[in-house]
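Quick one: structure for this chain?
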Amino acid sequence: MRCYAGLILIGLSVVVQARQYWAREDVAEWVFQGPADHCVMSQTIAGFGSVMFDQNIGHPLVVRINTALDLTEVHVFHMSRESTPWQPASPAVVNEVPVEISGEGHRLEFAAAPAELALDALESTHQLRLTPEVKVLGDRLDVVMQPVRMHDAIRSFRSCRLAQIQKEQEMAAKSRREASIPAKHPQHEAARPVSLRPAPQKEEKNLIHSPYQDWLKQHEAGHHGVPVVTRGHAKEGVPTQMIMHFAVDKSSISKALQDQMEGIVKEWEIRRGEKRSMSLLLEGDASAGHEALVQHRLEAIRGYLLARGMPAARLHVRVRKVVFTHQPDDVDVTVGD
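Got it. Here's what it folds into:
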């Protein structure tokens, strides 16, 4: 009889604890207003370092914190384009980890970047395995981060994202081809045939300068065996190094930056075909208070290159801390042995 009474008391205590657990407030929410806001969330996981999420949108950013998970703390930072340095937007330090980031607006193509960045940062360091669940609800895109046991979900997400990027590139190439073919008119029937060769592009600022291109031009002109100087030392044949220069801003990865990184990928593939050992160092200068911004830009570029198939063991990120009288404008990306 006493045993039955004890079991009943235990059952009642379990029910009471369960009701208290489910009755508590499990979600805390912060909304950042303003059309020119740049929001960065740094997630610190117990003993694993930090992962950064970036949303540069023209509408409110909603960050939902699920307080039912057992991780350490979350810091939410907010910076307006007109104000420096970084300032905490609110005392958003809780004992949990955010599991949903919602961006209201039409720039949905950039809303998936935080999930890619988190996957690259976490997978490359073999820390916590997360996979994003992306939902499109009208003009709203939710990225839900959930723990998983296997890498299949990560590879599936990457392959879907790569397929999306490839489709966008194919559509853009098709549009360019169609735009290069003029419409036929009766008075122009006897005109010369149309060439499908793309027009030479004008030189733009911040384009890739690659010694390999100079070497290739020399060989096409019949100048074989000409010494090529790379970073102060002469070397015969193909150079082992190239330099990429681009501007650092507060936006997501732009189309111009994607084109520049595609040049790095092509260069990498050429040299891989030549069985050359290559490594990529992403290095940027940051003044006091801007390390997080430069680090996030470099991690975003690194994540993009990882998604394009470059090996993680050959990609390195480093931020040099120097003193500037103003915010740095440029980051040098150097590829070498």
